[in-house]
Amino acid sequence: MSEPRINERIRVPEVRLVGPSGEQVGVVRVEDALRLAEEADLDLVEVAPDARPPVCKLMDYGKFKYESAMKARDARRNQVNTQLKEIQFRPKIDDHDYATKRGHVERFLKGGDKVKALVRFRGREQSRPELGIRLLQRLAEEVAELGTIESHPRQDGRTMVMVLAPTRKKTEVKSDQRRRREQARAAKRASKTDEAND
Q1: What are the pLDDT digits (tens) for 115-149?
Q2: Domains, the chain, with CATH or none
Q3: What is the pTM of this model?
């Protein structure tokens, strides 16, 4: 977004002026608007340059710029950046390998990410799709408290695909992690001050 024009950079004969608390002043000459801004110790900021005449507001531009930067930062922080993680299985997977991969799925779902579970079939395994369905349903049942099935198992050539969505949103997970980190820092600081006092 380009910077709005302020004060002397506004070069039009007339502007529609809005007061500091949002009240409509009306259409005034730009010199009068600049004089009002100077008397109120505020800036004249062009908020709608495409309007006829342009709309300007009396405000503290530095404060406005700071607040809009903080809003943008908070919006970025709370932005949902859920990723789609992929885990591959084979129809005749060993129990230990299955447990390891299920652990990865649980970790991804706890982190607020979606999981795409794939079962790859080779050769004659393609004639036994029920093995893949059984495996994916077992996985979905075992991680049911962390995630729900977003798309049920479906065969796509040599692979069977199922997507699991987390029950908690990524923003909730991030805010919990941030809160835990702050509590840990506070506890660490408290223990350091206790040691220093002893």
Answers
A1: 999 999 998 888 889 999 999 999 999 999 999 99
A2: 7-76 (3.10.20.80), 84-168 (3.30.110.10)
A3: 0.52
